[in-house]
Structures are given as C-alpha cells and as structure tokens.
Amino acid sequence: MATIKGIKGIKVQSLTSDPTASEAGGQLWYNTTSSALKYAIEGAGAWASGGALNNGRGQMGLTGIVTAAVTFGGIPGQKTFTETYNGTAWTEKGDINTGVQYNVGFGTSTAATNVGGVIVGGDDTGNTETWDGTSWTTSPADLNTARQKMSASNQAPSSAGFIFAGYKQSPNTSVANAESWDGTSWTEIADVTTAREAGGGGGTLTAAFLAGGNVYPNTLKNNTEIWNGTSWTEVNNLNTARQSPGSSGTTTSALIYGGTDGSPTAVTEQWDGTSWTEVADLATAAEGKGKGCGVSGDSALATGFDGSPNTITEEWTSPVYSTKTVTLS
Amino acid sequence: MANNTYCVASNWGKGFFTHSERNAFHLEGHAGDVWVVGNNAAGVSWINKVSGAAKTKVEAQAIVDGKVEESQTHWDSQDAEYKALYPRPTKYTLS
Fold first, then answer.
1. CB contact under 8 A, B81 and A281
2. Can you list the domains of chain A with their CATH numbers?
C-alpha cells in the first residue's frame, strides 16, 4: 500500500481528536479515532446566530465586543433595560436611569457611556449616563446639542469618546455637530462634512468613521467620512446607501450591515481602509433597526432586528475555518 | 432560478445557525419565523436540526404577507414624523 510518507517523504500527523479548525487552518492530519484523513481550510466570513436578548427591542445603545458587550434603552417606547453579553448569553443588569430610544454609547461592557436619544414625551435629550458594570450614574453634563440617531466612536474608552452627526427636532433637521467626552463634560469639535442621521459609525476619538445615513427627511446617503482626530475626510462610498445599519470596527477594518435602503436589507459590506466590499448577508434583514458593535471588520455583533423589535442577534466572523474529511477510494 | 426550500422554525439564539452552516447553504430569515433554505444536503440537515416545519413556497409567502400586513397596520397608526422617516412596509416575493 502506498503511503504519503512513501510518496512525498513526509509523515502525516496522527491525532486522537480533531484540533480546533481555526487553529489548524492549512494542516492535514489522520484522526485515529474515526480512522479518517482530515484537513482544515479557511473560508469566507459569515454570520451565525447569537444569543437571544431577554428583552426584544431596536434602536438601542450598544457597545463592546462580540464576547463582552452591553446594550441599553431602545424601542418600543423608551426602554430602560440594560443587558450584557458574554459571547453566549445575555444577562439582565441594572436599568438606565432615564428610559430612552435612538441613543448611542461607547466603551466596554464594564465601563460605558450612554448619551442622547428621545425620552418619554418625545423630546430629544442630551442626557448622559455612565456605566460601571453594575449600575448607571447620571452625569450633570449634557450634550451641547440634544439630539437622536447619532453615530459614535464605539471602540473608544468610556471616558474618551465622541458622538457625531444625528437628527434634532425643533426644527426637524439632520445635524453635522460632533462632540467629544472626557468623562466629565462635552466639547464641540469639528463637524462632519455631510450632516446626516442614522449613519453607521465606529472607531475611537482619534480614528473614526461615519458611513451611510439619511439626510432629513428622506435622502439616503452612501458617503463615508474618516476622522483623524482633527478633521473629517471624504473617502470611498458604500456600495449600498442606507440608514440605521449596524456597524463595527475602526478606520482600517470595519463592517456595515443591515439597515434600510428603502426596504429592510441584509447586505453586509467590509471596509479595508480604502474601499467597501460586499460580503455575506445577514440571515435576517434588519428592517432599519440594526445595531452593532465589534472591534474590527472581522468580528461584529448585530442586534435590534425586525419591524417589531426582536430578540434576534447575529455574530460575524471572518474568515471562517472548517474541517473537511478526505474521501479516499 | 433559485433552488430553495421553505420552513418555519423559531430562532432560539446561539447555535441556531453557525458560521460553517452559513457557508454551506443559502439561508434567509423572514417575518413569521419563515426561513428560505438552499435545497442541498446541508440545508436539509439544518432544517432537521432546528425541527423546521416544512412549507410550500405558497404557504411560506402567505405567512410573510400576513406579517407585512401587520406591519403596515402599525405604520398606518404612527405619526407624520415616523412616516416621513420610515417607508410603509411593502409586500415582497420570497426567492
């Protein structure tokens, strides 16, 4: 009988169990338990179902990473719910002090800032609350411009982040203002170039992006702007103009997913620092209420699905490794 | 022409569909827990895994249409600001 060692002069490793596919990419081995020759390959990025929220909702604040996230507020109504995620399951935690929707946040699952949105009664708010992993504390400092549907540097620390763009009532208009947070107060910084609401955003106080959105009342945008800590620069557009997408990542590696492009979309686009490329769709179109977080374009968490807010979440991983069995004749 | 099959299954969360499964067959989730599933061995295996209730395309479409009609009723009850920002949900055809 011919052997690989006899033919190629190399020996195939023998293992009693399969290694984790992501750690064995490109490797070949013989599984002595199942008597099968196997290999692991790298495949395209994909969405998988994540843990179900305890309280279904949309348009809430969300920040952190896929394995350690926190979500707060949301619709319907102005929710006070706070839940944390450990990569497997969501756990209910202490409520925010003021129920809110269309709010945003930045920071981590143990230290986050929640800001802006719409409070009970329908007014825009500049209300700011900080999270210590257990409870929320209302800050005496509000945003200079109360607003909703902002974007945020959701990979920034809770004491050094910023929010940008958005929408305000009285009068109804999309806004370009950006404001930075130092843990104590908000400071106006350079405006985004194209005022808009409900865009996708991410990054930090010194490197952030804003992509897509809507100019009130109803003009969808595909523009992308990059923040370098001082000013905004227009870069390559999204392939699909949309508002209210989920978003994650930084200026060099980011992901935009879901939202509304006139109708709910599942389209996902990945940013490599230069351009957007369409990749695998969400399993469920996000009905304009998608929210997301994540550290890069390779790892993201999507929540807030469906026309009626839902408990569904999805997790993005790129690349996806899988184990294959060699069929021998 | 898409070669799909249809089922109803409730998404229980983590593990309902995996990254590897998403790369092995086409999968779309719709209102009413309707799933459009690529008609190959991996897709059929997934339907069995999630105990999906098989539907014809006509049956699946009727469920989705009913949910869209519910969303339309909700949209019709909203104020002008909401209607200015969000388009009225419309029916669409499953692939």
1. no
2. 4-42 (no CATH), 46-317 (2.120.10.80)
